[in-house]
Amino acid sequence: MRDSHDNIRRKMLQRGLSHRVTESFLANVDLVGQESGYVSLGSVGVPDPTLLLDYSTVMGNATRDHSDARRLLSRAALIKLNGGRSTTMGGTVPKGILKAKRGLSYLEVVVNQIKAIKERWDCHVPLILMNSFYTDQPTKELIKDLDCDVRTFVQNEVPRLVEETLVPLDTGTEEDWVPPGHGDVYRSLLSSGMLDQLRSAGYKWAFISNIDNLAATMDPIVLGLIEAQGADFLLEVTPRTEADRKGGALVVKNGQLELLEIAQVHPEERPEFMDIHRFPVFNTNNIWVDLDALADLLAGGSLNLPLIQNRKCIYGTNVLQLETAMGSAIGCFPRAKGLKVSRGRFCPTKDIGDLFAVRSDACLLDGMAHLVRNPKRPMDLPFLPTVQFGDDFLDSPQRINERFEDPASVSLLHAEVFKVFGNVFFERDVTIQGNVEIAVPPGQKYTVPKGAVLANRRYP
User: What is the SS3 assignment for 187-246?
Assistant: First the structure.
C-alpha cells in the first residue's frame, strides 16, 4: 500500500494537483476494500414534514413581493455542473454545448434564464460552470460568443487505479485521469478560490444542478423558504415512480437527514428499498447550499462524503474510479432540509431518447427560458414521454437525420412511451399517441409514412 501511495502521490503532484487534493484522495484510497457495513433499513425512517417540506404548500403561502424576490436573488449564485461529455449519447463533445431546444445548446438556454432574471427582477445572478479537464477548453470557446458574464472553475481530477494493485493507471494518455464525481464540487469551489470570491462579493447561497436538467431553475420562492427555515442545505426530491426505484432515497437516521443509495443496502433488503411506497421520494441532484456553512465545514474537515467505487475497463485493464456524490453532503449539515418538488423540476437528459423528448413538442421554453410542459399536453400524462432508442436505430444525435426526414415534425404531444429498435425511417409529420413500440427484426427495414398516426400498439 505504501508503494501505491508513493506512486499516486508522485503522479498527482506531477500533474500539478495540490497537496490538499492529493492527500484527500489518498485518504479515500485507504477506504477501498474496507467493510463499512450495509445500512439496515430498520435503522432509518422516512422524513416527517418538519424535515421534508412540500413545494406546493410553500408556493401557496409564498409572498409575491417583487422587491423581496430581488433581494433574495441578488444574494444567490447559480452553479451548473458542466463536466460531462456526451458519451451516453454516442458523442465526445461536452454535453453543455449540444443543441437541446429550439436550436439552442443547454448552455445557451441557461444563459437566457439568467438574462430573464435580470430583466424581470433587475438583479445580477452570476452563472458559474464547474468544468472538467475534458470540457473546460471547448466550453471556454463557446462562452466567448455569449452576451453574458459566465465564470468557470475546473473540477479536480484524480488518477484511475488498477483494481488489482491500486497503483495509478499508466497509459500515457488522458484516460489515466478522471473527475472524482460531482461530490467534488465543494472542494473544487474551495481550491479554485471561487468559494471565497462569492462570499467576499456578498453572496449567501448557491443553487447547484446539472447542466442537462433545464427544468432546474433559480427560484426566489425556494430562497425565501431557506431563509425562513434557517436551512444550511436543501435537497430537492421528487416522487418516485417504478422507473426510479433504484434512485437515492431521502431518509432519516439518528435524527439527521441522509441520502441512502441502493449500493449501501444489503442485497436481501433491496426489494424493500425499491418499494416506492416505503421510500416515496428520490434525489433530483438539485441542491441549495449556504456558502458560509459550507466554508465552515470545509475549514473544519467535517465534509466527509461516502465513497463510491466505480469499476471500468480501460484498454483491457480493470480499473477503479473513486467518486463521491454531492447530494450525500446532506448528512453533514445540521440544519438540512428536503424539499418535495414536482417532476417539472427534474428533467435530465441522459441519453438520445431523453434528448429527443426534450426537443419535442411535449415541452416548451416559456418567457423565462424555463422548460415547461406544453399546455396542450394532457395532464394525465407525465411531464415528458419516455423515449427509448436502440443502438441499432440511433446511436448518436449526429445521425438523427439518417432516421428522420424532419425530427422536429414528429409530435409527442400525446405520447406516453415511444420505443424504436432496428432499421426504421420516419417520414415527416408523424404523430405518436399513447404507448408505441416499433421493433424491426435484423435484415429488415420499416418506413413510417408521412402523416402517419401511431397509437397504442406495437409496429409493424
Answer: HHHHHCCHHHHHHHCCCCEEEEEECCCCCCCCCHHHHHHHHHHCCCEEEEEEECCHHHCC
CA distances from 397 to 81, 90, 451, 458 (A): 21, 7, 23, 24
Confidence of residue 88 (pLDDT cuts 50, 70, 90): low
Please say whether the beta carbons of 248 and 327 come within 8 A. yes
Reported as a single tens digit per residue, the pLDDT across 257-306 is: 999 988 888 899 999 999 999 999 999 999 999 999 999 999 999 999 98
Residue type, 271: P
Nearest residue to 369 (alpha-carbon basis) of 157, 117, 130? 117
Q: In 3-state terms, what secondary structure has residue 267? A: helix
Please count the other Cβ atoms lying within 10 Å of the Cβ belonging to residue 230.
Answer: 9
How far apart CA 387 and CA 411 sit, in angstroms, is 12
Q: Which of 85, 83, 105, 87 is nearest to 95 (CA)?
A: 85
The predicted pLDDT at position 228 comes to: 93
Q: What percent of the chain clears pLDDT 70, i.e. is strictly above it?
A: 96
Do 145 and 111 form a contact (C-beta atoms < 8 A)? Answer: no
∠ CA 26-32-38, rounded to 5°: 135
Residue 46, pLDDT > 80, answer yes
Strand 281-290 versus strand 205-210 pairing type = antiparallel
Give the whole-angstrom CA distance, residue 249 versus residue 270: 12
Q: What gap in Å lies between CA 141 and CA 415, rounded to an integer? A: 38
Task: Compute the distance between CA of residue 48 and CA of residue 157 in angstroms, rounded to an integer.
Answer: 38
Angle, helices 106-121 vs 66-73, to 10°: value is: 130
Q: What cell does 432 get?
A: 405518436
In terms of Cβ atoms closer than 10 Å to its own Cβ (0-12, 13-18, 19+), residue 104 is: middle
pLDDT digits (tens, 9 = 90+) for 316-352: 999 999 999 999 999 999 999 999 999 999 999 989 9
**Overall pTM surpassing 0.90 (yes/no):** yes
- pLDDT higher at 145 or 200: 200
179, 83 contact by CB (below 8 A): yes
